[in-house]
Every structure is written in structure tokens, then in C-alpha cells.
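Re: the 287-residue chain
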Amino acid sequence: MKEHVIKADFSDVSLTATLYEQSFFMNPETAPMWSLSKLKSFHWHSNYEIFLVSKGSLSVVTDREPLEVESSLLIISPFLEHYTVPRDLEGYAMNFSVEQSKKSSSSMFESLAKWLSDGVTVLPLTDDERFYAEHIARCLAHEAPMEHVEYLVPLLFSEIFHRVKPEKKDQMLDIGKHTKYIDDIDIYISHHYSETIHLSDLADELHLCTRQITRIIRKEYDCSLSELVARRRLSTACMLLKHTELSVNAVAANVGYGDHETYFHSLFKKKYGMTPTQYRAQAQRAE
């Protein structure tokens, strides 16, 4: 498989981008079947993976809430196990890594690192990003001199990185103060989502008052604790429906709705617009 490695230095960030010609194109008519089948199986990368979805849609499944994006730029963090399902997709994919420039003041790099630390980052695809990605694709398709690609790739990432603004110092401190609690909340919910979780449980675990827990969750997740737990339960239910042969009622029981199957069906349909049985059938057809 032909590989191209492009390096570029920005004011605060050093970029290394890797393009694999056979997997850069995500159009099913031109991409080899092995690369598309890999997208549909769980895997991870040691660096960032970026998708530029030009047409159609791309679904991304991780241990978090499943995402479906259209006309978007999507970045997946290193070592995050995931798989993707393209639907009538035209788009592009590559890998990249970033390091702090030796001449950097660090503020831009720190903002970029934080921005990319959420596991899956999604932004609307801009016209400029679409322009550069499509021209990179044309260069590869027509075997243009690599100098053209080496010129276009830094321009593409310059557009992407300029959408990240260094945060004010007091904002950085506030984010840093909450980061540990966010991680602890995620871990606690991951371990106990199939049980009944009360604010007081989290307050005892994190040594905070219930008012502080509520404020942190509302600020960082824009929802209540019960809504956050429901998100995790439903995203886990999606994983079980796709990758196990458990009955729908058994899935409901596994994610904490054992005595409330009807409520589970209602929540699931409200969230995904279809019943669990329909979701499983659609996922099987996609594979």
C-alpha cells in the first residue's frame, strides 16, 4: 500500500500527516473492498484519524454514544477502539500526529490538545477544507507530482487548526479544575450505569456536594445526571444489539432497564427514531 508522509511546522504545532492512497478515498466505487470492510470492524490507531465527509453520511461507534455525521470533519483520538459505517459516502481519510513546536509558547498547542482530547471531535466541514481535500484527492487519482500534495496538506490542516482559539488563562484553570471530576464521573457511570445512580452516590464518590455535581454535569455535558446515564445506557444498548445475539429484553436488562422494558423501548425509539429490533436489523444490513 502506497504511503505518503507529509511534515509541516506551524507557529506552535508540528504536524505529521500520513496518507495511504488505497484508504484515502472513501467512495465505495473507487475504494478497495478491504479498506471499506476494515472501516466496519473494530480497530484503533496509534495516532489521530481524520475523516472529511463530503457527501452521504458516516456513522461512528465507540464505547460512547454512537454518532452519525454529514458534511462534517471528524477526528478520532489515538487508541480509541471504534468502527465506522459509511452510507452513500464520498469523503477522505488520513492519519496525523501533532507535537509542540520547539519555538512554541505552548498556548496554541495546549488548546489544540484539549480540543482533540474528547475521543471524537466533530465540526461542520467548511468550503475551504472541502476544496483542499478534493484537490488532494485529484492529485492522488491523477498521480500528480507529490509536491502538490505536500503543498495542499499543510493548507488543509492550517484551516482546521485555525478553528481552535487559545483560551484565556482563567478559563484554562477552570477547565483544569473540572477535568479530574469529568474523568471520575465518566468512570463511575461506566462502572455503574446498569444500576440506579443517585446524585448523592456521585457526591460521596467525588467528595463534593450534590449542587457541585449538578453544576459540573450541566456545564460539561449540557444535561442532567439522569440524562447522562440514559445516554450511556442507550449507546451501550446499541453496541449489544449490533454485536451480540442477546434478545432485546436481555439487552434492556444488561443496561439497567430490566424491570422497565417498555420504558427502554420508548426511550430508544425517541432517541434513534426506531425500535431496538429495527435498529438491529438496520445494523445487520449495513454490515
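The chain has three domains: 3-161, 168-222, 226-287.
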